[in-house]
Amino acid sequence: MFAFADPGLDRADHLRDDPDALAALWSKGKVLLIDAEGQTGVDAERGMLAANGASLDPAGMHALFLGLRDGQAWFAAQVEAADTDAAPRIDLRSAASLWPAFDASVFAQARAVLHWQGRHRHCSVCGGAIEFIRGGWLGRCRDCAAEHYPRTDPAVIVAISDGERLLLGRQASWPPRRYSTLAGFVEPGESLEQTVVREVFEESGVRVRSSRYLASQPWPFPGSLMLGFMAQAEPDEPRASDELEDARWFTREEIGAAMRNESRDAGLLLSPSISISRWLIGHWYAHADDAQPR
User: Fold this and answer.
1) Does 78 reside within a domain?
2) pLDDT of the residue at 164
3) How many domains does the chain have?
4) How far apart are CA 73 and CA 78, in angstroms?
């Protein structure tokens, strides 16, 4: 389907409050070691290189408990690059395109929570130091006891059609000819459907008539949850905006050619296959005939 959404890990919330159980699981567990750049080691075939817990001293590692798979515990810990024995490294986007779905999902979960921990060392209430408990999933201020939880930012991502064409946009920083579905963060006091209408109009000037939710994808860059929608819109002429240097309608034939890589050298380039954006485009293409006006 798309990356980072494999359901194979039991997060075992009931174990997070049991340090003795976690300590017992450590010796036979797998530990993903992630550096400050968000990269982890790989083996000779560029597969996941998870350490055995028995080979590591958990003292001082501040390990994050990820969950269980077939009774085996999975952990993660942030390490200095110098502590990785110069093993080849890989970033999450690259891993998602190479690794099995479970491995990429575990890496995504670990990277997102460790990123949150690394940027929440002090309490936002009083400025006191934060200690992480419950297997790394709860930050508690040592001064005022305020509790802090990992942050997930909801964002909508939308495949928009006027009944015959698909609306896509591009940011100036993207590779030439790369276009993608439109997306934006949910604001406080706003429903998802309201976000779809607002974001599409702000970014392209196109007016959405209706929308429906299809699927979601964790997107740990650094901590978003992409909520995928299909939307029907007026056939307005798109315009550029502060966020998009271009937005335009594409025909089903143009989308099909891009999906088959027929336009690699001259035409449209779509979102990477790891993303829900590409999945939404494919869903629209597969069902475009059903969306034709009757």
Assistant:
1) yes
2) 95
3) 3
4) 17
Mean pLDDT score across all residues of the chain: 93
Burial of 133 (0-12, 13-18, 19+ CB in 10 A): middle
Confidence band (pLDDT; 50, 70, 90) for 293?
very low
- Decide if pLDDT at 5 tops 50: yes
In this structure, what token pair is assigned to residue 95?
Answer: 């891993």
Could you tell me the pTM of the whole model? 0.91
DSSP-assigned letters across all residues of 65-117: EEEEETTEEEEEEE--GGGGTT--EE-HHHHHHHS-HHHHHHHHHHHHHHHHH
Strands 51-52 and 30-34: antiparallel
* HSE-CB of 79 using CA atoms within 13 angstroms: 23
Residues 176 and 275 in one domain: yes
Check residue 267 and give its pLDDT: 85
Q: Is it the case that residue 294 has pLDDT exceeding 50?
A: no
Are 106 and 189 in a shared domain?
A: no
Token pair in block for residue 14? 């009931």
Q: Which domain holds residue 139?
A: 121-150
How many angstroms separate the CA atoms of 185 and 198, rounded?
Answer: 10
CB-based contact 91:40 (threshold 8 Å): no
Residue 7 lies in a domain: no
Query: Is residue 207, in this structure, part of any structural domain at all?
Result: yes
